[in-house]
Automatic annotation (TrEMBL), chains A, B:
InterPro entries: HAD-like_SerB, HAD-like_sf, HAD_sf
Keywords of this entry: Hydrolase, Magnesium, Metal-binding
Protein name: Nonspecific acid phosphatase
Any one Gene Ontology molecular-function term assigned to this protein's record: hydrolase activity
Record carries keyword Transcription regulation: no
One matching Pfam family: HAD
Amino acid sequence: MSQSSPLYRLRWWFSLLLVLPLLAQAAVPLPSWKDGPSRQAILAFVSAVTDEGSKDYVPPAERIAVFDNDGTLWSEQPMYFEVLFALDEVKRLAPQHPEWKEQQPFKAVLEGDQKALADSGMEGLMKIIAATHSGMATEAFIDQSRSWLANAVHPKSGKPYTEMVFQPMLELLRFLRANDFKTYIVSGGEVAFMRAFAEEVYGIPPEQVIGTTFQSEFQDQDGKLSIQRLPQLAHNDDGPGKPVSIEQVIGRRPILAFGNSDGDLQMLQWTMAGRGKRFAGLVHHTDAKREWAYDRESKVGRLDKALDAAKQGNWTVVDMAKEWSRVYPFENN
Amino acid sequence: MSQSSPLYRLRWWFSLLLVLPLLAQAAVPLPSWKDGPSRQAILAFVSAVTDEGSKDYVPPAERIAVFDNDGTLWSEQPMYFEVLFALDEVKRLAPQHPEWKEQQPFKAVLEGDQKALADSGMEGLMKIIAATHSGMATEAFIDQSRSWLANAVHPKSGKPYTEMVFQPMLELLRFLRANDFKTYIVSGGEVAFMRAFAEEVYGIPPEQVIGTTFQSEFQDQDGKLSIQRLPQLAHNDDGPGKPVSIEQVIGRRPILAFGNSDGDLQMLQWTMAGRGKRFAGLVHHTDAKREWAYDRESKVGRLDKALDAAKQGNWTVVDMAKEWSRVYPFENN
């Protein structure tokens, strides 16, 4: 066919029509964010710090972005997913621990006694976390975390937990990385549990995952080397623990931070208190239909003081119900 | 001038003669390494793990290289440079601590009493380190470290400490990064002290510096935020502490490790015990003329067990005197 024939030209135009929407979609950043105040604030911030001619320009090496995980990158209801993992682990490990039948809080877990479990409080929870997260090599723990994540499903959605991540936040992570940001997780979750899925699900490599840590010990048993996890906490990466771990591990102050609860307050404050242009964001869970709606009164992911700080400081508060056109990747758009 | 004129051609050839040696130098990796067994082992290793067709290929994300600092990237005689910093700091801070005049080990430092200082042992040293490394915000400590590094000179060479870095190791760091390795420091040195110069001197950013850490605390004094350094150690990054911090901070096992003393033994073992092709290197201080010569009997940077392990495991032991054509950048080549 001649390149000047009418048919050829028609096909050429037709191809273009097919390709154009794809090009447009690729070109529009943050497609699952409605064009509301949060999306505009993010775009304006990234534009300002990446424009070499701007007074707010930040060199790539200093473009550190930190994200809380539970409630910020994935859901956290009816309970932090890692706690649901720990409860399942208690059941799986019970045959090796006959003493748990008579020992709280393990007895409560095994008998499904919600009241006794709640009564055991934070101390009980820490016992459950320690019993299920220590006493093995890190590699074995990560394998077990992956095995649970591959098989367990969420009680409400029936979906694997790793699918209950927020599509708009996945897009935000990608958008920041495309603009030479280094994206970190800084979370109360245990670091090895998060590393079990963060690279595959969020594109965040192990060395950019910061979290709660257990003490651990290098062991050499007749030449077989391992790092054994001990039951004592080394660092609790919540609240004021977050800026502390950011300083210890990253050694630079972030220019962007995203959280969703009072546990993120100090990380957000620390980020905003640096020199130059900065961004603080909160995911506000306002969507009882597609996700959950909770804030000041919630036991999990309480957002109270940080919401006040956001209003005072003019931080970006994302109204999930109004500003996200899609919550989870599995939703039809 | 015509391009075919003899003069033009002469000038053209002359330019080429001037440029050729520069091109050759740029093309040869590790120019300060003589073409001995260590250089060959490094080149063979990097070639194997970066060749996509090789059975030993390692994807870029997993190319983690860890380096001890004292004695591996810079000198450590007559004493770790950070200890010399701490001793100078005791003198600088003495007016604010009149009690030190009567208190060991500070009294010994102020009076220059080497014997009393040596008698105070490891415990005395830790007191000096804690007193000079804590009680301020991290930013202030880094400023003070930089100020010392900018002004202090080494007692033997008369050079600033940051010039007493090993030229062949600078070249190795650059060569590895050019081959998509991520280069880390993993050192017994305190992390913030090393971050004060690691980026400028080694090209290693703060988030790739791992070291000994002090506990620290987030403070909010009427809205003025800071991270205050406390006198208690959080992590001692020496010996078995090195694989532990590698696991906690990086979460991946290195494929290359370089050290120079028994404090690096476990890091080297941990690196070599992984699957696939790996590299372990030791800088052997054999050069009393250009640097220092010491190993099994040295109080600083003792290399004894790790030297045996290197022989058993066929690790690369760099004979500084024989294999480095230049030790420091300031030497004439």
